[in-house]
Write a structure and sequence with these properties.
Number of strands: 7
Structural class: alpha/beta
Strand content: 5-15%
Largest sheet: 7 strands, parallel
CATH class: Alpha Beta
Strand order of the largest sheet: 3-2-1-4-5-6-7
Number of helices: 7
CATH topology: Rossmann fold
Shape: globular
Oligomer: single chain
Number of domains: 1
Order of helices and strands: EHEHEHEHEHEHHE
Helix content: 40-55%
Distance between the termini: 51 Å
Amino acid sequence: MSQRRVLITGAGSGLGRALAERYAAAGCAIACADIHAGRAAETVAALPGQGHFALAVDVGDDDSFQAMQAAVGERWPGALDVLINNAGIASGGPLIGTDMDEWHRLININVLSVVRGCQAFLPAMLAAGRGQIINTASFAGLAGAPNIMTYGVSKAAVVTLSEQLRAELHGRGIAVSVLCPAFFKTNLLESWQGNAKMKPFAEKMMTASPDTLDTVADAVFAAAERRQFLIIPTRNEPICNG
């Protein structure tokens, strides 16, 4: 059996890096893409096995994404086995007071990056009749909560996009999964874009979570290998009453 080829965006740190480690340990070749080229290279350097490489990409920029697609195609002609659209940014705050620039940033990076990934790499998967697409959303995309308006809406869009894509690809040999973790300790808040007053609350929730990066990555990898569609890899989801 040939070595599986896996592309992960946001692979320079956090869940992206942890998933790169698990797929590499399973014998896959990993293309690690990140807006921070140095971090992507650090991930590659730490991976077991062979065939890995790093890429710099701004998933919110069409030209940058197309350049990454060309680089992947040059290194790996044909179809990917697994595409993980993982890169994203965090935000917090209520609807009133959230400016349109924040809405545009969150929709562009959290939602349209997934669209860019699918449009770039799905055609080759369809031609090959095989593959898997894994999109990182959030539990915030399943259950509404106060003061995460732009983030929750953007992640809900990723869930819906994944549901639509799964329906479109039914019977065509390509699996779709969507990840919906709740709070766990990671470095997502480095990308914080919203109301600064909400950031300490998010940090507190992450610190208090019983889930760790390793437990979440283990759960995601196991479920994805089963080709499970909806993956909720954290144990204690927030309860939202309404």
